Amino acid sequence: MPFRFYFFFIITTFFFLFSPGQNPYFQTIAFNRELFFQKQATPSITIHPIPYVNSDVSPLVSAQGAYIVDLNSYTPVFKKNPDKHFFPASTTKIITALVAADVYQPDDVITVSNVSVEGQKMDLIEGEQITAENLLYGTLVHSGNDAAYALANFYGYDAFIELMNIKAQKLGMKNSYFTNPAGLDNYKQKSSPFDLALAGRALIENPFLRKMVGTKEIIISDTEYSIFHKLTNVNKLLGEIQGLGGLKTGYTENAGENLVSFYRHEDHDYLIVVMNSEDRFADTTMLVNWIKDQVKYLSIDV
Predict the structure, then answer these.
(1) Residue among 132, 284, 269, 157 nearest 212 (CA)
(2) Phi-psi region of 240 (alpha: psi -120 to 50; beta: other; left: phi over 0)
(3) Which residues does the record give as substrate binding sites (predicted)?
(4) Fewest C-beta atoms under 10 Å: which of 17, 127, 216, 288?
């Protein structure tokens, strides 16, 4: 073929590659200049400020186990026997609530059964019908053992306990094992300050549950609005310490006093865990003040 034919073919091809017009066939093979010349987005990397302790002053607490972690950077700033086994008492209910949030919808109606249990109760009535959401309020705000058992019993007690231990494993709680949903003492039931920090972090990341642990007081009812329960948070520090968002208390004679706290200070979030304490509220107050006085932050520019 003559040279001018090839020349015409090449020119025509380039014309339609760069200016395909409205023809769908030409647009399919057209040279997409926008995509080709589009600047590739640089991956966004966020490096949170790193906390560090400003002095050698360690907090003096009666708790036999304690752990403080900065949630944004996952950096621990204080440890005392972080992996030692302790009785978790009602801090167990953090895991109970996480599992209940997995298996129930808030509006699921639960029939209360077999709630003759010792310890702290919200005074559920046998056969009462109440939503899963309200039972979670009873579990996390009032620390009702009967509420925790109602959640487990309705699902199937043994299956629920199995899910609690599966949840703990998935969260990396290697020093924890649960035999009941309320935290009643059992020689097999155990946890550690580090493990409870993992559980607390999972709860705080759940907006539904996070709202509950920061509730000071609430009145809830059964589905017929005939039975009412006034729930008061066991955590005395809630509303007393600025920045404290609650979380979960625990106490038995064998466990001593336990407390997992969510604390925010100057846009930094912390989890504070004390276990086997002689005075969990005094210890936590001490640790909050220590954070304010001794923990500083190093910003890293990329």
Answers:
(1) 132
(2) alpha
(3) 248
(4) 127
The reported pTM is 0.83
Distance CA 73, CA 132 (A): 33
Beta bridge partners of 197: none
The CA-to-CA distance between both ends of the chain, in Å, stands at 61
Per residue in 41-72, pLDDT tens?
555 556 678 888 887 888 999 999 999 999 98
Q: Return the structure tokens found at 151.
A: 């959640």
The residues that are catalytic are 90, 93, 143
Measure the CA–CA gap between 148 and 132, rounded to whole angstroms.
10
Give the per-residue pLDDT at 51.
Answer: 87
Q: What values do phi and psi take at 287, rounded to 5?
A: -70, -35
For residue 23, what are its two tokens?
């023809």
Query: From the annotation, which residues make up the binding site?
Result: 248
Distance CA 211, CA 214 (A): 6
Amino acid at 293: D
At residue 242, the 3 state secondary structure works out as coil
For the domain covering 50-298, report its CATH number: 3.40.710.10
- DSSP-derived 3-state class of residue 216: coil
Percent of the chain with pLDDT over 90: 75
Helix intervals (H) in the chain: 3-18, 24-29, 33-37, 93-103, 132-140, 145-155, 157-170, 193-204, 207-213, 280-294
d(CA 199, CA 104): 19
List CB contacts of 55: < 8 A, sequence separation 6 or more. Answer: 294
Residue spans per domain, the chain: 3-37, 50-298
> Reduced to 3 states, what is the DSSP secondary structure of residue 92?
helix
Tokens 């093979």 found at: 29
Partners of residue 271 on adjacent β-strands: 69, 262
